[in-house]
Amino acid sequence: MARPLRSPGPRALLALASTAVALAAADTYVVVVALPDMMSGVGLGVDALQQATPIVSGFLLGYIAVLPLIGRLADLLPRQRILLACLAVFVVGSMVTATAVELPVLVGGRVLQGIGGGGLVPATLALVADLWPPGRRGTPLGVVGAVQELGSVLGPLLGAAVIALADWRAIFWLNVVAGLLLAAGLWRAGATGRPRVVPLVVGVLATVLGLLTLTAPERLVTGVTTGIPFVPFTGTSRLATPIGVATGVLLLVLAAVTARSWSAVLRRADVPGAVCLAVALGSVVLAFASADPTREVVGPWGRVLLPLAILAVAGYAWRHRTAAVPLIARGVLRGRVPVALLVSVLVGAALVAVVVDVPVLARLGDRSQTGAALVLLRFLVAVPVGALAGGRALRHTGSAVVAAGGLALAAVALVLMSGWVPAALDGIDATAVLLAAGLGLGLAIAPVNAAALADAPVGDAGVASALVVVARMTGMVVGLAVLTAIGLHRFSATVSALPDPTDTAALARAGVVQVQSVLLGGGIAAGAAAVAALWLGIRPERVHDAPEPATAARATS
Predict the structure, then answer these.
(1) Whose CA is closest to 168, among 85, 211, 110, 244?
(2) Could you tell me which residues come within 8 angstroms of residue 9 by beta carbon, excluding any fewer than 6 positions away?
């Protein structure tokens, strides 16, 4: 069983964890501006966009696929230890990404970044469940939601600023520096104890050799003696070298010397169940995220991946029934938790409709890419404001009132947006509607998390938080594909009815019809989420006999 510990700095711990969440969220969207330069850095031309798809989908794969396992580990180990582990993976992934000169290495770095960055969110949400009683979780949950959304706003802006001053690799080196500083702060605030000497030394050596392998410093490579470890066994890959092999051996040694500490935990975490869910979620992400939205709903491997996802879900269902302690405990999906997951899926679909198609509408009005981004910024800045306001509102009312009210506001705003043409974006009314949409969707974030954490068993807050995050991200990935397919169907129907299919102005109007269809679909998703949110609870959560934030991360006994 797990038992609570006292934290020397619970608010400091939450502040540091929330900052780490913001850092990872910023990294999610940084490729919006950095992708062309990243492609060039690994030898891809601007015409090879399809080959660069794994740079984006790899991050999503890492972010979503292992979240249930990380959530379960956060229930078995101290929260701050999981936060430190996720930050370590994120930092290593950032190092690999920053030094990559080959596409597979770059994708591998992005996958590691996704795993580490994604794991920070449920661990931080579960930390809130430890630090605050149900009736006082609103504001801290709002803070976590706000900083996560703020990170998504700042990511492209910071990326553009860094690229203006340096190259794209500097973005990820800044991640390394920030991640190490946050890890130091979390270690001090969380009082996790001293690291073991041998694993620390082996880990440092593996990191140094790994960096030398990937950077291949010219001074060493061109030396008569020092260059021998960098000579590839075959081809030109920097990994297939003596120093690359040495790095791999050290990583195996690190796994061996730490096996005693993590093997027992992994046995309790239900690794077979986690593998089944990872295959299912990963297959869904890759099937939809790799699709060309102008031609298809799912990617070319969809016919293989989606049946594989169904088989993996069936495998997990069997494991869930037969395992003594399954990955998702049998009491987790009870009360309001399933409703919270449904609302999260629908919120993800509504959110992605705005994020993707409002800039498209702006570009159809002959705005530049920067101008389109500034239009979307009106929506994005309102989401974290709504998240913070929604958390504070939970002090006085129930999750259903805040979430349903916010989502109803967002639904009305999206329906109004579905009637826009590009010229409508110039008016002050458009700003008000975009702000209302962002505020409404943001208002739902804290109530959904609060309801799920309140009804999940005390020892399963990590898994419950992970499921909420997975639901929202899945809603974004699948929602984008489905809504875009609906929009393209209307676009095709409009074009086929044109007397002159080569008329540029008429084609632009057909493109507007496509965008309007997607936004209307997002409005319907938000409206459905508002109805579902009515079951999240009308009354405020009760404050149990816990005064102020006192209980920190859990620890295994």
Answers:
(1) 110
(2) 189
| Rounded CA separation 61/546 (Å) | 39
What length does the chain have?
A: 557
Tokens 């989420």 found at: 529
Q: What's the token pair of residue 429?
A: 């009314």
pTM for this predicted structure: 0.86
The one-letter amino acid at 293: P
Indicate the SS3 state at residue 554. strand
Q: Model confidence over 432-464: pLDDT tens digits?
A: 999 999 999 999 999 999 999 988 887 888 899
Distance, in Å, from the CA atom of 112 to the CA atom of 106, rounded to the nearest integer, reads 10
By the 10 Å C-beta count (0-12 exposed, 13-18 middle, 19+ buried), 502 is classed as exposed
DSSP string, 90-158: HHHHHHHHHH--SHHHHHHHHHHHHHHHHHHHHHHHHHHHHHS-GGG-HHHHHHHHHHHHHHHHHHHHH
Model confidence pLDDT, tens digit, residues 255-283: 888 887 788 788 888 889 999 999 999 99
* Residue among 474, 63, 532 at smallest CA distance from 342: 532
Instruction: Characterise 162 by phi-psi region: left (phi > 0), alpha (psi -120 to 50), beta (else).
Output: alpha
Q: Please, where are the H alpha helices in 258-398? A: 259-268, 271-289, 302-322, 337-364, 369-393
Cite the beta strand spans of 392-548 per DSSP E.
Answer: none
Rg of the Cα atoms in the chain: 24
Burial of 259 (C-beta count, 10 Å sphere; 0-12/13-18/19+): exposed
Q: How far apart are CA 14 and CA 10, in angstroms?
A: 6
CA distance linking residue 451 with residue 420, whole number of Å: 35
